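Q: Sequence in, structure out?
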Amino acid sequence: MSEIDSKNIYSQLGLNQPAESSNKRNDELGQTEFLELMTAQLQYQDPLKPMENGDFLGQMAQFGTVSGINDLNTTFSSMSASFQSNQALQASTLVGRSVMVPSQSGFLEQGASLMGSVELDQPANKMVITIKNSAGQLVNRQQLGVQQAGLIDFEWNGQDANGNTMPIGEYQIAAEVYRGTEVSAGAVYTVVDVESVTLGVGGQDLTLSVSGLGDIDMSQVRKIM
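A: Exactly. Output:
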């Protein structure tokens, strides 16, 4: 039986014959070794039951598929490393900045205002913002009047209805949305400061540590201020 030309087989299959790697593990089976085994199999096959060409080419195609999957895994690993680098770069720009997140709680800092927004999916005849302390007592009530659909900004200066400055701490914020005789709750977003960022692991989002509210996922951020 004539000897098989491995270079010609690679050419027919549209594959590039790989160069020998000096640092390949001893227990790895590369394409060159695979061809040598197939050549030996053809040389010593049973003459009464010869291997079909289709079987040989099928095994070669299967090996090429496995090799392609390995190359794809290597590419994805490289993309994952690049994604993590981009995450680190993004994280470095967020620390010290303010973000808007969905929360009905806001933290009032010393001498600062508490800001946020309410998202309306359709216009409203009137909207009222209520501020309550941690004990659930009403502190302030803001009348915002007629509003169009979209993000409606609000700001509380940290004072009660009598003009007294309230202590720092966490406050509950709610939005009453009036449409005719119907009253519903609006989606409230508060503006918070980013204190630190934790990089995601295994494709997870960044975790932001924000003032007064603890940790939140980056995916929850509605706006970066």
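The two ends are 76 Å apart (CA to CA).
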